[in-house]
Design goal:
Length: 289
């Protein structure tokens, strides 16, 4: 029997099809627009296709789902027997997805709690999984939201990009833009903080940036385990765009260095995040359970 609380998220959670099916999670996709032609993330366009478009300097933008798409997802969940819905989405500072979900929630046939997780990629994905597990355990909507918020609060995301140009073009560096000024000649390490992208450190070369990224992740994961909160286990996700070998090598170096390692996911980001981060992205999500 499905849980009384249904879980809805968006395509930037980058959960595997197996995880979506196992936990009966509904997914509403965002859209990527290349040369004025729209493609649905996850079904009509791949991250490598976006990387190629960016490398050829073709115009690439992204678009949120419409409220109608969320309405359809909420109605389907209610028709399947859900008595309430928790809808978890990427940071509202990155996209209007949260706003579209909020509009649809007002007309839904069952109560809907829409949550701005402040996260993206598997930082969002691990948060969604925590919510799904709470729902499967028989939790109320309040219980499910609380589980998601605990996981999101504990989760950190760090990443390296070859260039800030793509983030600057898409306006995704927000208030941190003033920090960069002369930083374009160096390799930036960034992090998610309060739903925004912030500059963490500036490193002189790509190899040193990746080494420093590894050190930061090990420190963060170790602090989470040593802190004693939760289960003492920590999940990692290593993301990339057009840098598969570098991501795989980083994951293998992290595996023996992270105490209490739970799940270790290595995956290419989807088309939407790829459109804003650009080829060469290398990121790591640290998510204590």
């Amino acid at each position: 029997m499905p849980p009384h609380v249904a879980i809805v998220t968006d395509s930037t959670a980058y959960l595997s099809p197996q995880a979506l099916t196992r936990h009966a999670i509904s997914l509403v996709p965002l859209t990527v627009v290349i040369d004025d032609e729209a493609f649905v993330e996850g079904t009509e366009i791949s991250a490598p296709a976006v990387a190629r478009a960016l490398q050829r300097r073709r115009p690439v933008t992204t678009s949120r789902p419409s409220p109608a798409e969320f309405t359809a997802a909420y109605e389907a969940a209610a028709a399947s027997g859900a008595k309430a819905i928790v809808s978890l989405h990427l940071s509202a500072d990155f996209s209007g997805t949260y706003d579209a979900a909020t509009v649809a929630a007002k007309e839904a046939p069952v109560p809907v709690r829409v949550v701005d997780t402040g996260m993206v990629a598997m930082a969002l994905g691990f948060t969604v999984l925590a919510a799904a597990e709470a729902a499967e355990a028989g939790g109320t909507a309040d219980d499910v939201v609380a589980a998601a918020e605990r996981r999101a609060t504990a989760t950190s995301a760090f990443f390296y990009v070859d260039t800030l140009d793509y983030l600057r073009r898409g306006g995704r560096i927000g208030a941190a833009q003033a920090l960069f000024g002369s930083a374009l000649a160096v390799k930036p390490l960034l992090r998610l903080a309060d739903g925004r992208i912030e500059l963490l450190e500036k490193v002189r070369t790509a190899s040193k940036a990746v080494t420093r990224l590894e050190e930061i992740v090990v420190e963060c994961a170790g602090a989470a385990v040593d802190g004693g909160a939760g289960s003492g286990r920590v999940d990692l996700a290593v993301h990339h765009l057009a840098a598969a070998d570098r991501a795989a090598a980083l994951a293998e170096r992290l595996r023996p260095r992270v105490p209490g390692l739970g799940e270790l996911v290595v995956s290419e980001v989807g088309a939407v995040i790829g459109a804003h981060a650009g080829p060469g992205l290398l990121g790591v999500v640290v998510s204590p359970r």
